[in-house]
Design brief:
Blueprint (H helix, E strand, L loop, with lengths): L8 E6 L3 H12 L4 E7 L2 H11 L3 E5 L7 H11 L4 E5 L3 H13 L3 E4 L13 H9 L7 H5 L13 E6 L3 H9 L9 E5 L3 H14 L3 E4 L10 E4 L5 E8 L1 E8 L10 H7 L7 E5 L8 H9 L3 E5 L9 H7 L6 E2 L1 H12 L3 H9 L1
Parallel strand pairs: 1-2, 1-3, 3-4, 4-5, 6-7, 6-12, 7-9, 8-9, 12-13, 13-14
Antiparallel strand pairs: 10-11
Helix pairs in contact: 3-4, 4-8, 7-12, 9-10, 10-11
Length: 354
């Protein structure tokens, strides 16, 4: 008998705007992998539809009447955890709310289409929903809150390059909370809309010991600094003319993404022997080829393991082609990075004695 096709994942659309619900439904209708089983205009209607329809994944608006999306998400993840993709305006307040939703347990977030761009609205939503429906739900925030910055770190001169996508907010927060104030210079390409990245940088800067900022052309790489690719029309790259510095490259998307992990990784090839490179959770394979080039050039490369990845796509691709030497559980990634970037105790004592 021929192999049966997998059952379509059931989607519930939750948004108080009938127009937005129609746009989302229209984008999903022709994708055989997904089946829209219902719609809800507010959180209370959504609660009843979830009970009746048992969807595999829901889209959830941030701003709704009677109960906003964040309050509903918090209750949902506490009482009946399930995959949720947030749909938010890309205003400053909307983007901050979307990042908060990801911290509460949402799998991913997408921006609502701007006026005049409706024909391209929600182009990536089907793939995002499918990945979310198959994703590993994030761990409770209790374990993340217990992470403390490392102490007595002595930097040996390496830079850290990190690529992440779906599930990356949770993973990056966990890792960076383990970084000390004097961490190695760290460059991150996270797949996310431009305004969401700005809000994410603000949030990280509030909750971790090192300073976090969006990358800008000309910024020197400095200890104690974490640089997040700003996205929008640019990719983040690193240049090494005597003193390493950041540069924003205006270019087309790579692997469907801007910022692209591959472009960031490839830009650091002439610094490979002093680089520690990590691929985190995410769908697709962005970063795998760039990591392979870095490893061949002498970089130390590893990936997040399957058990702790929300979506084991990017790490799997890196491991399958041999770009990553090994995989590491999320809670052990920060210690592994710092171990690879630290001076040996003998060298530290020698420096202290001079």
């Amino acid at each position: 008998m021929p192999n049966e096709l997998p059952l379509a994942k059931k989607v519930l659309i939750v948004d108080d705007s009938a127009t937005m619900r129609q746009l989302i439904r229209a984008r999903l209708t022709n994708d055989a992998r997904l089946a829209v089983v219902g719609e809800a205009a507010d959180a209370f209607e959504a609660r009843e539809k979830i009970k009746a329809l048992s969807p595999d994944v829901i889209t959830l608006d941030v701003e709704m009447p009677r109960m906003n999306g964040l309050d509903f998400l918090e209750r949902l993840m506490r009482l009946r955890p399930m995959p949720v993709v947030m749909v938010s305006t890309e205003t400053h307040s909307g983007s901050r709310a979307a990042i908060e939703a990801l911290a509460l347990g949402a799998i991913d977030c997408v921006g609502k289409p701007r006026s005049g761009h409706l024909e391209k609205s929600f182009e990536t939503l089907p793939d995002i929903l499918l990945a979310a429906a198959n994703a590993r739900l994030p761990q409770s925030g209790v374990s993340r809150a217990a992470v403390r910055p490392a102490r007595n770190f002595h930097w040996a001169g390496q830079i850290v390059l990190i690529g992440s996508s779906t599930g990356g907010v949770d993973a990056l927060e966990t890792i960076l909370k383990g970084f000390p104030e004097n961490c190695p210079p760290t460059l991150i390409a996270q797949h996310m809309p431009e305004s969401f990245l700005a809000s994410f940088a603000e949030r990280l800067d509030r909750i971790i010991a090192p300073s976090v900022r969006l990358g800008q052309t000309g910024l020197p790489l400095a200890q104690g600094q974490v640089y997040l690719a700003p996205g929008g029309p640019t990719h983040l790259t690193v240049q090494n003319d005597r003193t390493p510095y950041l540069s924003l490259l205006e270019s087309e998307k790579r692997n469907g993404h801007r910022p692209s992990v591959d472009i960031l990784f490839e830009s650091a090839l002439n610094m490979a022997t002093n680089a520690v490179v990590v691929l985190l959770t995410g769908m697709g394979r962005d970063g795998a080829e760039g990591m392979m080039l870095l490893r061949r050039a002498g970089a130390h490369c590893f990936a997040q393991d399957k058990e702790t990845s929300t979506v084991f796509g990017m790490p799997r691709a890196a491991l399958e082609i041999g770009a990553a030497s090994y995989s590491v559980a999320l809670e052990k990634i920060a210690p592994e990075i710092l171990r690879r970037c630290a001076q040996s105790p003998a060298k530290v004592r020698k420096v202290g004695e001079t």
